[in-house]
Amino acid sequence: MTYDIIIIGSGIAGLMAAIEAKSEINRVAIITKSNIFKSNSAIASGGINAVIDENDNTQIQEHIDDTMKSAQGLGNKKAVTYLCKRAPHIIKKLCDYGVAFDKDEKGKILQRSFGGGSSKRTCFVGDSTGASITQALIKKAKLSGVEFLVNQYVMDITKIDSFVSGVVVLKRIDSSVIVYPAKAIVLAGGGYAGIYRGFSTNAQDCTGDLLSVALRAGLSLKDMEFVQFHPTGFAKTSYLISEAARGEGGYLVNSDGERFVHELGTRDVLARAIFEQIRKGQKVYLDMRHLPLSVIETRLPSLYKNAYNQVGIDISAELLEVKPVAHYSMGGIEAPFTCSSLKGLFVCGESASLGVHGANRLGGNSLLEGAVFGELAGMKAKEYANYQNFLPIDYNVVIKDMSLVDRIFEGDCSKNFNAMRISVGKIMFQKVGIFRNASSLQEAFDYMKYLRLESNTLHCIDKDKNNNVELISILELRNALELSEAIILGALKREESRGAHYREDFPLTCKGAKRHILIKEYQKGFFKVAYEESKIVQFIKKLLID
């Protein structure tokens, strides 16, 4: 089966890309490794940032300024400006697609405060904004004629020279490896915070598979050390407590009942403050008891229900214990304005490092980034595919992936891959988490290197090829270990503290270190880590080449 454009990922970025890419004459498909409703976008509950009035240049500039400030010197001004100026149009488009944002009695979209914002600009649907947006976009995509290829795990992309030509996938239903030729491909498969398994709001399969695919295709990863820890997850289950809870007036208190931090500060500041309390032996709680029950029931219904169902707490009358949890990855595939270094390959959403978040994402900007740059990636992919022919498939890649699957099915295995995944999450949180230092990072790197070698000996205990869950879990683990090394190497290279990256041995932010870190894997297990060249150096090199 051939498609003009293939989008990988069914979150807000992938769905927006597919809708924009579809025309009356082309074929567009979305590939997702599970069902179409499962994505990080669907669990993003708090809201989406936007100045609703496109003519309010003052407020739009404030949105730009807040985003650049939160990025702490690593924001791309051009990309941030595009993001914030496009936001009013995106909200209108989402409304046209059927997203029912909460409104006042006059029909005006309500907006709440979010951390790091200088004004109320977060549009919302109760505390299930992401789910509401993705459901509307799925409906729109289906009506537009987009095809959904579900339960298909992407193993690699094929290319001819510097042009993409297809996508290699593993079909869950029978463990067969097939290839889909395509003129253009959009990577929109989400981030890698799920590597911190047991200490993350992400599902356990959110391990950044597409970033590993990108490395194997010769692309660079950018700023991998910046993993955002959300300040508030359920202490027992890591379930995400939306920033909406604090935006609606919730307090953070310790065991002594003291408020110890400004609740609407940026996420990096809050996460460190909460974790410091926990390291001192204190427990930290979300206190909603002072809020009217009507506010909790109408603005925070999901939190109200899940707190009771998961941990037996009535947040209108009781304190809810919280902890910081890995939530979002600012790093990703290098792709300026969604364009990768491979022709026909575009990247958007959490998979990409576009420069709009820098060192620390502003709450409410992730859904916006997915929508804005998903839209842009879809438009660029359609434009590219309109003038491109299908290219030959490099079947060496396909055969390599088929052989890998065969090897994993062959042989016996005495190792517990599930225990290894849990161990990865624990070590990453303890040693590459909210606080880091050279010693902890080196220990983590050595351990991941060891586990990466061990992962080559993993085999499926269950040899049935129909819907074999072990097979994909092993492949995910191999990718997670590869990316873990990249995260650690980036963290070791950045000898300063900036945003979500805090080095206890380098606690200060270096004014002269406003540089991005690029990582490439030249051969399996061998990375090159380097600071991105400045624009001046790039310009001089171009002059010399020309």
Q: Could you walk me through the main structural features you see in this protein, from its secondary elements to its overall organization?
A:
- The chain has helices at residues 12-21, 40-43, 57-71, 77-96, 129-144, 209-216, 244-247, 267-279, 293-299, 301-311, 365-386, 395-409, 417-431, 438-455, 469-493, 535-545; strands at 3-8, 28-31, 48-49, 111-112, 122-123, 147-149, 152-160, 163-171, 177-187, 221-222, 227-234, 251-254, 284-287, 320-329, 332-334, 345-347, 352-353, 517-523, 526-531.
- Helix 3 crosses helix 4 (77-96) and helix 14 (438-455) runs antiparallel to helix 15.
- The chain is 39% helix and 18% strand.
- The two termini are 42 Å apart.
- The strands form four sheets. Strands 1, 2, 6, 7, 8, 9 and 16 form a seven-stranded mixed β-sheet that branches.
- The protein folds into three domains: 3-186 and 219-225 and 328-386, FAD/NAD(P)-binding domain (3-Layer(bba) Sandwich), CATH 3.50.50.60; 229-327, Alpha-Beta Complex (Flavocytochrome C3, Chain A, domain 1); 395-531, Methane Monooxygenase Hydroxylase, Chain G, domain 1, CATH 1.20.58.100.
- A hairpin with a 2-residue loop joins strand 18 and strand 19 (526-531).
- It has 546 residues and is α/β, with parallel strands linked by helices.
- The radius of gyration is 22 Å and the shape is globular.
Domain tally: 3
SS-based class: alpha/beta
Share of residues in helices: 25-40%
Structure annotation, total helices: 16
CATH architecture of the largest domain: 3-Layer(bba) Sandwich
Can you identify the CATH superfamily of the largest domain? FAD/NAD(P)-binding domain
Distance between the termini: 42 Å
Low-confidence stretches: none
Q: State the major sheet.
A: 7 strands, mixed
Q: What's the CATH C level of the largest domain?
A: Alpha Beta
What is the chains' assembly state?
Answer: single chain
CATH topology (level 3) name of the largest domain:
FAD/NAD(P)-binding domain
- The counted number of beta strands is 19
How big is the Rg? 22 Å
- Chain-averaged pLDDT: 94
